[in-house]
Amino acid sequence: MILNDAKKVLISREQIEQRIAEMGRQISDDYRGRNPVLVGVLRGSFVFLADLIRAVSIPLEVDFISVASYGSQKNSSGVVRLLQDLNTNIKGRDVILVEDIVDTGITLSYLIDNLKTRNPASLVLCALLDKKERRQKEPGILKYVGFTIPDKFVIGYGLDHAQQYRNLPYVSWVEEE
Ligand code: 5GP
């Protein structure tokens, strides 16, 4: 597949920009005076996180964590592996976990359980996209959601298909083979 095949737009650049501005304002209001740590889940969330932090007007810190889920790209096996840990000690900190997309919820449930053992002062989840129909495990702390989307395999704006398409400035989708 070449980039031209991904011309279909599910969520436009303008819609993303507008929604992120709203989410940034909401986070700024909710965390005023608290200096939260925004933790991006690599790799898919890096584009969203980069735009989101610039929409937040209060002091904050950024860190990253990287996980991999065994199984095919489209179907998580439920077994999650930590590839790269945080540099920040989050004990006593207000943590906002930033994900590109919540699908089955398996990856996030693992991550949340893992981060909770480190005793943050608070822990909530912020995801650009929510594929609600596919949920198997509900990560109870999904506080900020950009868009709820149908059950399509989406690409662009940080999300890949076989490592391609992360550079699309909008969200598109891949037709089922
Ligand atoms: P979950 O554990 O919730 O099923 O899956 C979460 C991870 O699977 C996401 O962080 C993302 O990396 C990947 N994923 C789930 N749905 C999609 C999708 O539609 N497109 C892409 N590119 N990745 C997805």
Describe the structure.
There is one protein chain. With 177 residues, the chain is α/β, with parallel strands linked by helices. The chain has a single domain, classed as Rossmann fold (3-Layer(aba) Sandwich). The protein is 21% helix and 32% strand. The strands form two sheets. The chain has a six-stranded mixed beta sheet with strand order 3-2-1-4-5-6, sandwiched between helices. Strands 7-8 form a two-stranded antiparallel ribbon. Strand 2 and strand 3 form a beta hairpin. Helix 1 packs across helix 2. The longest helix is centred in the first third of the chain and has 18 residues. It is globular. The structure holds guanosine-5'-monophosphate. The site of guanosine-5'-monophosphate has 19 residues, from strand 4, helix 3 and strand 7.
Q: Would you spell out the secondary-structure blueprint of this structure?
A:
Layout: H1 13-30, E1 37-42, H2 46-54, E2 61-71, E3 76-84, E4 94-102, H3 106-116, E5 122-130, E6 142-148, E7 153-155, E8 172-174
Parallel strand pairs: 1-2, 1-4, 4-5, 5-6
Antiparallel strand pairs: 2-3, 7-8
Helix pairs in contact: 1-2
The chain binds guanosine-5'-monophosphate.
Structure summary:
By secondary structure, the chain is of the alpha/beta class. 21% of the residues lie in helices and 32% in strands. The mean pLDDT is 92.
